Amino acid sequence: MTTDPIISSTANLRIKALARLRAHRGRSEGNTILVDGLREIRRAAEADLELLEAFYLSEGASPECRDVVEICRRRGAKCIQVSPHVMEKLNYGDRTTGLVLTAVRPTRTFADLKPGDRPLIAVVDAIEKPGNLGAILRSADGAGIDGVIAADPIADVYSPNVIRASIGTIFTVPLVEAAGGEALAWLRARGLALVAASPKGARLHTEIDFRRPTAMVFGSEARGLGRDWKQGDIEHVRVPMMGAADSLNVSATAALFFYEARRQRGALK
User: Fold this and answer.
1) How many DSSP H helices and E strands does the chain contain?
2) How far apart are CA 33 and CA 171, in angstroms?
3) Cβ(151)–Cβ(228) below 8 Å
């Protein structure tokens, strides 16, 4: 590792570019994503991403950090050492893992979804909070959901906050970004039952037959379900609420739906 170049100034152009990737402008306009956290970086390196550069701490990096650097190197990333005070500029909050990775933003399409005979697909409609999207992806990974469609997303799907909240499972779950109408047409063409979470649903989510090929739709917490997901062939269902609130956080609702579907299919371990 000692032959890798070292950056010791926060004025370095590469470091400034990394700082911009943490800002809305940098994430939205470019084709590069930023990944931090050793679990997240390891999962990115083990996925089919094109890795670009791995910036690691020149002094005091942990053995685990150095192991992940070597994984990135084998996957084609250019490895660059940075001094401790430069790494402080790159760290997110109190994270001190000593490694930051850049990669090419994935561009997946519906052709990349391989749902099988009885698919379970999640649709997140116009989701605006990165933490919610990341948590939904984490639950989708845990429950074995076949794919996630981000319909008309407001949040940057590959922002560092989404990646972090998903603990890197954003790289393990097939994820497609699409317009709502395009997503709905794709699901209908494949004959999936369409079930949307809504506080106004007539039936409970536990009353739905999730053994069928099913798409589960979750709306924005601020605006609810969009117009595309209020059509007659989409059944609105609810989770039971016993207190003053009429709904749960959208990521909690998604987890309940996912694991109810998994329970019905008899595949819990």
Assistant:
1) 9, 12
2) 12
3) yes
Q: Yes or no: is domain 13-104 CATH 3.40.1010.10?
A: no
Q: Average pLDDT of the chain?
A: 91
The pLDDT > 90 percentage for the chain reads: 77
Tokens of 243: 């207190």
Q: In what order do the strands lie in the sheet with 6-7?
A: 6-7, 78-82, 51-57, 99-104, 32-36
* 110-265 CATH choice from 3.60.20.10, 3.40.1280.10, 3.20.20.70, 2.40.10.220: 3.40.1280.10
DSSP E strand stretches across 3-64? 6-7, 32-36, 51-57
Supply the pTM of this predicted model: 0.92
d(CA 106, CA 240): 37
In the chain, helix, strand, coil percent, each to 5? 35, 20, 40
Residue 42 neighbours by CB under 8 Å, 6+ apart: 68, 71, 168
Mean of pLDDT values over 219-239: 92
pLDDT computed for residue 90 by the predictor? 85
Model pLDDT for residues 176-205, shown as the tens digit of each residue: 999 999 999 999 999 999 999 999 999 999
Tokens 């990775």 appear where?
A: 101
Q: In this structure, are residues 133 and 124 in contact, taking their beta carbons and an 8 Å threshold?
A: yes
